Amino acid sequence: MEDSWALIVDASQFWHNYRHEANALGVYDAVRRLGLPDSRIVLMIAGDVACDVRNSAPGTVFNSASREANLFPADVEVDYRGAEVSVETLLRVLTDTHPPSTAGSRRRASGAGRNVLVCHTGHGGDGFFKFR
What is the C-alpha separation between 103 and 107, in angstroms, rounded? Predict the structure, then answer.
């Protein structure tokens, strides 16, 4: 897995898009359980449903009504939040063309031979994605 990376993007914000954040966090949970370390995962979350005042279980996100597994554990590493989740940021991560001051944890090492899982959840249609 040393050449494997994951770029997980939840491009939706607001409470009514809870499912998008849960989808992204579900993929994040899955790749971590498969052994991919956070140093090889770039997680972008546009909203903040875990802390939304309408969340009946503050600090948690679930992907089922049974609430069996909290997808927002204390050690979740969100690399980009809120307004940082943009088309520009996505392209910078994909191409590793960040400003020199960008922390290594917010980068993906690019190059030939890299396996990259890209997961984008949110709204869109034929030929386009919406961001926030």
Answer: 7
Tokens in use for 54?
């309408």
> Each residue of 15-32: pLDDT tens digit?
988 899 999 999 999 999
With beta carbons less than 8 A apart as the criterion, state whether 22 and 62 touch.
Answer: yes
Cα(78)–Cα(42) distance, integer angstroms: 8
Q: pTM of the prediction?
A: 0.88
SS3 state at 79:
coil
| Residue 86 Cα to chain centre, angstroms | 12
Burial of 46 (0-12, 13-18, 19+ CB in 10 A): buried
Paired strand residues for 115: 4
